[in-house]
Amino acid sequence: MYRRQQGMTLIGMLITGAFVGLFVLAGIRLAPVYIEYMAVSKALESAQTELGGTAPTPQDIRKLISRRFDVDDVSSITPKDIEITRLSQGYKVEAVYEGRASYIANLSLVAQFNKSVEIAR
Question: What is the C-alpha to C-alpha distance for residues 98 and 112, in angstroms, rounded to an integer?
C-alpha cells in the first residue's frame, strides 16, 4: 500500500521560522518605542489631572512635563517639542513625534505618535 507523506519539509520549516523570526525581531525592537510613548502619554494625562482648573501657565505645564520626562527617562521628545495652544477654556497640549528603532543593518522602523490633552483653566 502506497502511503503519502504529509507535513512540512526542513527547508519549508526554516523559511517559515525565518519569516516568523523577522516579525518577532520587529516586535522586540519596537517595544521600547511604544513603552516610551506610554510614558509620554502618562505625562500629558498627569499634567491634565494635576493642573486642570488651577489656571496654569504654559511654563507651568512645560515644567511639570519636563519633570515627568526626567523621571520616566523619555528621550525621543523634549518638553520644548510639546506644542501648547491657548483655547478659550484652557490649553491644548500636543505631542507629535516619531520614534525610531534600528531593525537590521541600515534599516529602521519608524512609528509616528500623536497625543493631545486639554487642560482647563
Answer: 4
Q: For residues 112 and 96, what is the distance between their CA atoms, to the nearest angstrom?
A: 8
Q: How far is Cα 59 from Cα 65, in angstroms, rounded to an integer? A: 10
Q: What confidence tier does 1 reach under pLDDT thresholds 50, 70, 90?
A: low
Give the closest residue to 64 by CA, choosing from 82, 40, 80, 47.
Answer: 47
**Mind giving me the DSSP string for 29-79?**
HHHHHHHHHHHHHHHHHHHHHHHTTS---HHHHHHHHHHHHHHHT--SS-G
* pLDDT tens column, 66-99: 999 999 999 999 999 999 999 998 999 999 999 9
Rounded to an integer, the average pLDDT of 45-68 is 91
Strands 90-102 vs 83-86: parallel, antiparallel or unpaired: antiparallel
